[in-house]
Amino acid sequence: MRELTCIVCPIGCSLSVNESPVTEGLSSLTVTGNRCNRGAAYAEEEIRAPKRVVTATCGIAFTSVEPGSRSLTAPRRIPVKSSAPCPKEKIHELLKDIYSVRLSLPVKVGDRLITDWKGSGIDVVAVRSL
Predict the structure, then answer these.
(1) Side-chain-side CA neighbours of residue 22 (13 Å)
(2) Rounded CA gap, 77 and 82, in Å?
(3) What gap in Å lies between CA 59 and CA 100, rounded to an integer?
(4) pLDDT digits (tens, 9 = 90+) for 47-84
(5) Where along the chain do its domains lie?
(6) Are the C-beta atoms of residues 46 and 3 closer than 8 Å to each other?
(7) Among the four residues 9, 73, 81, 106, which has the most C-beta atoms within 10 Å?
(8) Of all helices (H) and strands (E), which one includes residue 22?
(9) Which stretches does DSSP call E strand in the chain?
(10) Contact 92, 22 (CB under 8 A)
(11) Residues 91-129, buried b or exposed e (16+ Cβ, 10 A)?
């Protein structure tokens, strides 16, 4: 039995998930403690194929020719996030790709910095203008 807290709505139901084996490779899940069907769907996805929205930062490529002309207080990174949840087992790979990006300014909130990452439909977007 696994215990989860549902994060789909503000209620935060305490879910209990029982797995019983099935002959065709997939197990059957029984979810209790949910007050709505969304809680059961959340528990099933969390057990079978967990996903997370990824937040990170991208580096800024400074193109200044004069040494020392960049202000010491200028940000060196900009916050970004994935537009959709990423499979948990691929988060490390996505982060590696995000950290390799060097942005040219200006950047606006919502700008796509990585589009359709590896054909997954996940975009990486800026969450701050700079």
Answers:
(1) 9
(2) 16
(3) 8
(4) 888 999 999 999 988 755 455 555 556 678 999 999 99
(5) 2-48, 52-126
(6) no
(7) 81
(8) none
(9) 2-5, 14-20, 28-32, 51-52, 55-60, 77-82, 86-87, 102-103, 112-114, 124-126
(10) no
(11) beebeeebeebebeeebeeebeebeebeeeebbbbbeee
What are the tens digits of pLDDT across the range 74-126? 678 999 999 999 999 999 999 999 999 999 889 999 999 999 999 999 999 99
Q: What is the pLDDT of residues 6-44, one digit of tens each?
A: 988 888 999 999 888 775 666 788 899 989 889 889 998
* Distance of alpha carbon 104 from alpha carbon 68, whole angstroms: 18
Which phi and psi (to 5°) does residue 124 adopt?
-110, 125
pLDDT score of 75:
72
Identify whether the C-beta of residue 78 lies closer than 8 Å to the C-beta of residue 103: yes
What superfamily would CATH give domain 52-126? Answer: CPE0013-like (3.10.530.10)
